[in-house]
Amino acid sequence: MKDIKSYIKNNKDRFIEELIDLLKIPSISADPAYKKDVIKTAETIKLSLEKVGCDKVEICETPGYPIVYGEKIIDSKLPTVLVYGHYDVQPADPIELWTSPPFEPVVKKTEIHPEGAIFARGACDDKGQMYMHVKALEYMTETNQLPCNVKFMIEGEEEVGSESLSWFVTRNQEKLANDVILISDTGMISNTQPSITTGLRGLSYVEVEVTGPNRDLHSGLYGGAVANPINILTKMIASLHDENNHITIPGFYDNVEELSKVERAEMAKAPFSLDNYKKALDIEAVYGEVGYTTNERNSIRPTLDVNGIWGGYTGEGAKTVIASKAFAKISMRLVPNQDWKEITELFKKHFETIAPKGVTVNVKPHHGGQGYVTPIDNTGYLAANKAYTKTFGVPAIPQRSGGSIPIVALFEKELKSKIILMGFGLNSDAIHSPNEHFGIFNYLKGIETIPLFYQYFTEMSSK
Amino acid sequence: MKDIKSYIKNNKDRFIEELIDLLKIPSISADPAYKKDVIKTAETIKLSLEKVGCDKVEICETPGYPIVYGEKIIDSKLPTVLVYGHYDVQPADPIELWTSPPFEPVVKKTEIHPEGAIFARGACDDKGQMYMHVKALEYMTETNQLPCNVKFMIEGEEEVGSESLSWFVTRNQEKLANDVILISDTGMISNTQPSITTGLRGLSYVEVEVTGPNRDLHSGLYGGAVANPINILTKMIASLHDENNHITIPGFYDNVEELSKVERAEMAKAPFSLDNYKKALDIEAVYGEVGYTTNERNSIRPTLDVNGIWGGYTGEGAKTVIASKAFAKISMRLVPNQDWKEITELFKKHFETIAPKGVTVNVKPHHGGQGYVTPIDNTGYLAANKAYTKTFGVPAIPQRSGGSIPIVALFEKELKSKIILMGFGLNSDAIHSPNEHFGIFNYLKGIETIPLFYQYFTEMSSK
């Protein structure tokens, strides 16, 4: 790819400005209040794809938020890369912890990002990483170096389970036909050590409701005599882990893939400092399943975490009340071979079983997805690794991520092609947290690396 | 007391209108947003005391909300009754469960209140019950039948711990000198079976904060590898009760007064239907400390209840986050001999002890108060019982209440007189809950019974 460095240098400021404009739209898919903004973001993506030379761009309606589809087919005999990304973002709360407003992007320098990073919700997950692909295409079309066909599929429900995307993919196999699927929605080890995500965890996300008395009660007149839904909920949740932090749901581990000593030894080679990890989070000790390292706990092992809990009086001061209801949002991260629908059922059954008399329980499944593992000997992986090696000067390390992209397993099933997870974010980028950011270095490095993937993948495929 | 029935009959509508006007002011002491309304309520009480013939009425400033003091001294040789009540109310949430707005009082008929009940926050606790005393005084002054001296002390912080009242009482023993303290801030068994509360539970109210990582984390990237503050909080709270629902805080039961078989048998005589109790609350089973009946669990036994819990994402939809912090409001109801400050210390120490490495815990004591038990052979009790017997046709039953009026123990200590708890509310009046109400029958019956107490207490005291 000729002159890519100079092209990026000359257009750097505009690349950043365009991304900042995109980040200003609060496309929070979880909250209906932002519906207009989510739609507006889809339209903005459509225009950006047209601008960089896609021949055909359309906003495809679905039962939920639309999917932006774009393509540039230069020669049907050439391979086709399908780029997937999402234009929706996580909710921004707790707002008060943001040092600058989540939807007023600003560039700030940090220790890890001396060249500056863009601070905004969605900067890294996934608007920034998705937009790298748009700008990479711009470079290839502007300089007439696009070596193959390209398709874009950008959705607006990734943060809430990608239901409409499943609906869309199963109905459009032909339209989406491709030779490799390229996704930048994961991270890498560091700005000096790139890595490619070869595994993702599955997800089951549920909401539970515990109901006791038919109304809030005075804790003095009824305290001690009726089941307090909040106390009961804490007992029930606490019982979901045993003293070794194993999950106690019957059958939960039945299909969990146990890694061999060799595989675990391979994993352990990834550079990792427990001290830095603890220091970065400001914690005295890590905590998790007995018998596994921190890197194993958050990648090859399934987990159960409460993501939110609420009930009773949570305002200023004191209210001596026994609430009628208590609630929690609970997510389970799953590993390959655990079926998320089956796990959701096991959870529901178990949670209903452990409810004591005096309360009723309602378990509402939210969404989920399967885990995924990709082999490291396929053309896509080799091309990606070659691209990283060229732009970073060192080969990428294959890594299992603890995160979930529920749709990935479905892609392979429906579209019969391999998925390559070329992530350019860092764990410290605080995705899903206040002060999410994306390094300028990472953003531009992505734009520089992606065209090389196109080139190498095309060359290797033609062999 | 001559013509009291006809006086009430002739003024019934005005009595109700005046109370409704008082209930329209949202005097929520727990929430600073209502400061103006709390003050305005104090001023309204002041005017009402002046109107019914108090010679001296003043709004006494304190470090917190003011105390309305009023007196009518007719003869220093006659006994003096000190009436205590409060003009502040509990927060109204959850607002959405009110069938009519909490501060737009309406009269509705119910099964238990065929003559109608006033629905509004504070209707029973305590504006309605406090205002009975104002109207009772009106009757006695208007008909020149006031048999003794009377003092009023109406505070605005009962729902948040009465701190300023303690401050006021300890500084005004002389001003508040009295022969008996009369309080209507409790309930009775039913409209056909009056009861006098002879015991109150103490209270310790704390707020706990569990902090894990220094920021919210992505539950995929960190799930299973760090202590999740919400999961930890549920484990810690769950551990505060053992399998018999005994509280596990070391030393918690050390000073708990164990009642004799005889006393427990006496208590058991009070009419009670477990079926009706369960039906009223719409629960399949009661729940509580093994070895005690429902009436014992909520009166003579100490308890620990979570009044509120919150942490993480509680909005619409799903957010896969590990929150940095989780919170709970916890109250303990205490029985006589348990010192609330000591119990608060025991809780704090224990809660900090059980926190695992990886989180830090902050326990913030909110407020509290001692329990109280009154003998049933003192003049005040006998006079009250005689008054109930006259107006209800049956003698009152002495009862231990599960509720707390933290200030009562202090009254006895500082003012050296007995406290008589003449309550006219019912448990079903939903105090502290949505749709709080106070029966018209109960309101007027209180106005009818109180003057008789004045008469009998004066007669019995002069003997």
UniProtKB/TrEMBL annotation, chains A, B:
Q: Name one GO molecular function term.
A: metal ion binding
Which positions fall inside the Peptidase M20 dimerisation domain?
A: 199-358
Which InterPro entries did the record assign? Answer: Bact_exopeptidase_dim_dom, Cyt/Met_Dipeptidase, Peptidase_M20, Peptidase_M20_dimer
Where in the sequence is the signal peptide annotated? Answer: none
* Gene Ontology BP term (one): proteolysis
Q: Which UniProt keywords apply?
A: Hydrolase, Metal-binding, Protease
Name by which UniProt lists this protein: Peptidase dimerization domain protein
What organism is this sequence from? Urechidicola croceus
Organism classification: Bacteria, Pseudomonadati, Bacteroidota, Flavobacteriia, Flavobacteriales
